[in-house]
Amino acid sequence: MTTATTSPAETEKAPETAHKRSPLAALGGQNISLIGALVVVLGLFGVLNDNYLSLSNMQVIAEAATITGLLAIVQTVVIICGGLDISVGSQVGVASVVSAMVFTSTGSSAFVGVLAAVGVGVLVGVLNGLVIVYGRVNPTIATLAGLAAYKGLAQLLSDGRAQGYVLNNDFFVFLGRGKIAGLPVMVWILIAVAIAVHVMLKYTDIGRNLYAIGGNDTAARLAGININKYLVAVYALIGVVAAVAGILLTARTGSGQPVSGSEGLELKAITAAALGGCALKGGKGGIGGTLLAVALLGALENGLTVEGINTFWQNVAQGALLVAAVVIQQRRNGERAVGLPH
User: Fold this and answer.
1) What is the pLDDT at residue 217?
2) Model-level pTM?
3) What is the 3-state secondary structure (H, E, C) of the chain?
4) What pLDDT is stored for residue 11 in this prediction?
5) pLDDT (tens digit, 9 = 90+) per residue, 291-321?
6) I want to staple 87 with a disulfide (CB 3.0 to 4.6 A). Which of 140, 147, 172, 252 is the partner?
7) Rounded Cα–Cα distance for residues 153 and 266 (Å)
8) Residue 241 has pLDDT above 50, yes or no
């Protein structure tokens, strides 16, 4: 029997070759597909409308996508660790109302209004986490209840109407309409949150533990990871970022919005995370893909609006994209059809 041998030179080259990856391979097939779809959408609506690709309209798309982007980022985190949060839109509504009402009632103190909104965000986020962990309630059911409860809370606090007026305050004006180096402040906030969460997921033990929990929670527990602590912390993080989104909504619209501007954000956030490559079973996903998906959804929504297409079709498009993303995931994972043999 002949045994193949490998020279020392070949052995030294093997690892080097193994680590060499083309830029496209490093980018990932999922992200390449999203970039391709984004180019097609931009090209299509650019041909249909001369103003669509203008700098001013690109800024409109970026500003409109900021709140969705913030929620999609934290939705990515919770999906990675095997959870879900359907209540994020309602949390934004509560934070928006609280920020404006406290601002008005304290004699126009932006700091107190912002602090109150963030505090409420932490409370509702921790409450979600505690119900899921210690109440042993499925995350989908727990946050579906939160969706209804927090929406009702926002309406009770505001009597169902927009509250306060904040555009007489320089800080809120800066948040909603200010620019730094030509980019809206809102977009800079999205970039900062995206970078911070990306670094946490990819380069810290916290991130590695979150992937481990989502990939196999039993193995993660046996490895000594305190899963309960991580889950409560993740839902608290969602509450904080949802509060920031609510504050930005207040700054952008000029008043606290209990429902308008926040309703439907949960669907957009989940759709963006799924399109961006998050496995809904947990353990897989990243911020880069999610942001590309947010950009795609924003470009599509703006294009449909610019062309005067009925806004109801936007909901149809979002639903179709979510189903398509999940179908593609299932096919890639080799999942068999329900009720059918392998």
Assistant:
1) 92
2) 0.87
3) CCCCCCCHHHHHHHHHHHHCCCHHHHHCHHHHHHHHHHHHHHHHHHHHCCCCCCHHHHHHHHHHHHHHHHHHHHHHHHHHCCCCCCCHHHHHHHHHHHHHHHHHHCCCCHHHHHHHHHHHHHHHHHHHHHHHHCCCCCHHHHHHHHHHHHHHHHHHHHCCCCECCCCCCHHHHHHHHCEECCEEHHHHHHHHHHHHHHHHHHHCHHHHHHHHHHHCHHHHHHCCCCHHHHHHHHHHHHHHHHHHHHHHHHHHHCCECCCCCCCCHHHHHHHHHHHCCCCCCCCCCCHHHHHHHHHHHHHHHHHHHHCCCCCHHHHHHHHHHHHHHHHHHHHHCCCCCCCCCC
4) 42
5) 999 999 999 999 988 888 887 887 788 788 7
6) 147
7) 17
8) yes
pLDDT, average across residues 15-25: 51
CA 130 – CA 149 distance, rounded (Å): 16
Q: Which of 136, 335, 175 is nearest to 254 (CA)?
A: 175
Q: Is 21 buried (19+), middle (13-18) or exposed (0-12) by CB count in 10 A?
A: exposed
Specify whether the CB–CB gap between 175 and 167 falls below 8 A. Answer: no
**pLDDT tens, position by position, 86-119:** 999 999 999 999 999 999 999 888 999 999 999 9
Give the C-alpha separation, 246 to 110, whole Å. 14
Q: What is the pLDDT of residue 331?
A: 72
- Are the C-beta atoms of residues 124 and 91 closer than 8 Å to each other? yes
Q: What is the pLDDT of residue 190?
A: 97
Q: Is 47 exposed, middle or buried (0-12, 13-18, 19+ CB in 10 A)?
A: exposed
Note whether 268 and 72 are within 8 A (CB): yes
Q: Is 139 exposed, middle or buried (0-12, 13-18, 19+ CB in 10 A)?
A: buried
Per the CB < 8 A criterion, the answer to whether 30 and 278 are in contact is: no
pLDDT for the residue 194? 97
Is residue 88 within 8 Å of 269, Cβ to Cβ? yes
